[in-house]
Structure formats: structure tokens, C-alpha cells
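Box 3.1 A note on notation
Throughout this textbook, protein chains are presented in two layers. The first layer is the amino acid sequence; the second is a C-alpha cell string describing backbone geometry. Keep the layers aligned when reading.
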Amino acid sequence: MEVAPRGIDPEIWKALVPSENPLTPTRVALGERLYFERKLSRDGSVSCSTCHDVRKGFTDGRLVSEGIGAKLGRRNAPTTLNAALQRDQFWDGRAASLEEQAGMPILNPIEMGQPSRDAVVRTLAGDPDYVRLFKEAYGREPNYTDLERAIASFERTLIFLDSPFDDFLGGKTEALSPDAQEGWRLFNGKGRCVACHRLNASNPLGTDFIYHNIGVAARSRDFEALAHKASGELGSEGASKETLDKLALETDLSELGRFLVTRRRADIGAFKTQQLRNVGITAPYMHDGSLQTLWDVMDHYNKGGEANSYLDGGIEPLALSEKEIDQLVAFLFGLTDHRFADLNEAARRKQEERAHMTRPLRDTDLALRKVLPFEDRVLERKR
């Protein structure tokens, strides 16, 4: 299983698989079973697949995820498709690897709610099938480190990079519609998408892997007050992994994004540039799920985001026409793997219907922004 997935350079893939956790069929099989295992949650109601559902593009289709006892977090669930190709995990990058990420939701009180690693291991050790599977995969009794490694191993098999766009790059010009092809041109030109969503053979995900404040939460959040509060919560020595997890998922400080991890003021309100692969089937969008369709996403960028003191310098109005927005969206739907073709088409139809229903409201908001100068827009958002 050391063979690199299609579309990934073998040397890059070799660097992405930790030497202490090489891929083997038994580890992947164990990880797949654990991924769907509800016994990993305290009340037996939630598994990894609850928020990363195979039928929903390995997301949950919700604004923010729901854990045990119908508890809601503060973040939208990113897809686990191609997660193995990310440099770090979560919207704020607070986990450095797939292994580290895999173990955190199990212990978070509003996600899977287990009280301790030992409690999880006791549950697994009481199941003869799991005892056998752990021994086959790692040669040991069930333990938490190998649980994390197994889930990460399974997730490394979720590479989905075979899309109409890839066919187009391979010379099949008919793989993308004329509108989608024009969207690709806009993506690299007037739309300026490529500034953060780099998309090429050496970077097939369409991300720069870094963090930007694009003004998603600025309409309703006072970043200065949140940053001041966070400084007290984080302490002078920095916060533990468990504390960061709590602040990110259970409090308003979630909106500070990467700042919670780095405590750099430049990271206030900044979140990871998400991959564009399979984006058509992973709605809703942004860290808080506040944008329902890809048309909403393009409108957000077209109007220049929400004004705030930490807005990334590259976020500014684009002056895209409605036709150009439609073309860009057509291109984005062309980035979905062929294996999700039916789901992609259903999502496109659903989003398009919703987008056309809300377009008059978006046009009104955009017109207001053209009239009000920048300073007045800031004041408008604070009222």
C-alpha cells in the first residue's frame, strides 16, 4: 500500500506517510472500522462518520457539527477527503497531523464526549474483535496511540483527485463546459482566486495551506474584545491542546481562528484556506457554515468580504458580473471527483435553485457597498 495515489508524486506521498505508521491493509481495515464505530463516543451515538459522512462528501451538511446529546460546536466540519494532503488539520491548524487530529474529537466534551483515553481503550479491549484487529495491525493490545494511527491510515486512503478538470488538463477539452472553461480563465485572472487557491500539478488541492482573515465573521464580531478575552484564557505560557480545543469549539473565541494557536495579532480572524477539490458536494461553506452555496461564496469575495481591521490585504471587490460568477461556479463544480458525479449534480441543482432565489437580496447588499465609502461600511457593521 506504499504506492502513491493517482495524481500524487510518489516522493511527496512517501513524505506524507509517517515512518512510524506505514500503510498496511490491516491498519487501514482497523481504521475503517474505528471510523464508523459509535462506541468511541460516550453515549454510543456518534462516530467519526457522523460529521464526515460518506453520503455527504465526507462532511455532515450542517452549518456546525452536532455531537453527543445534540450539543452544537462552533465550527463547520471540513471534509476528510484529501485530508492526508493537508499540512495541518482543523480550521485553525491546531493539530499537526492526521494522527493527532483523529484522537481529539473522541475526548472533546461536545463532540464524542469520552472522559479519558483509558475509558476508550477499556471499551475496545472488552471487544474480542478489536483485540484481534489491533494485534493484526500493530502487534499489540488496543491502545490510544494505535487507535489514532489506524484512523489516520484509513483517512490516507480517501484521496479523490480524478475530476473533469483533470481530464481537461489531460487534453480532453470537452470534459469542461465552455462556461466552466471560461471560469478557469477567470479563476486565474480577474477573479484572482489563484492568489490563495493555487491549483496545479504540484499542488492539486487548490490551497496555499495558510491562514487568512477574509471577513466572514466581521459583520457580527468585535475582534478586539475577543482577542483581549482570549489573552486571559490562553495565559502567558500558552494553552494546552485540550484548552485550545474547548475554546475553538465551545466559545465565541472560536471566531479568532488561527490567533488561538499562534497569539499573533496578524492571525486574528484568520482561517485556513480550504481545498477546492470536491467543493461542490461539501456545502455549506466557511468555518461557520454561514455561506450556503458556491454562488454565496463568490458573492462574498466579489463584494470584498466584510470590512474589519484584520482583513487580508488581498481581499477587495472584484467587479465580477453575474455571468462571470456563474462561470466561476461552473468551474468549481468541475473539481469534483467522478466517483461523486451524481451527488455533485444533485448539489449543483439544489445550490443553483437557492442561489437564484436569494440573488435579489445579494444584489441589494452589493449596491449598498458601492455607495458607502469604506469608513462608513465599517461603521455600518458596528451598529
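The first strand starts at residue 211 and ends at 212. The beta strands are 211-212, 271-272.
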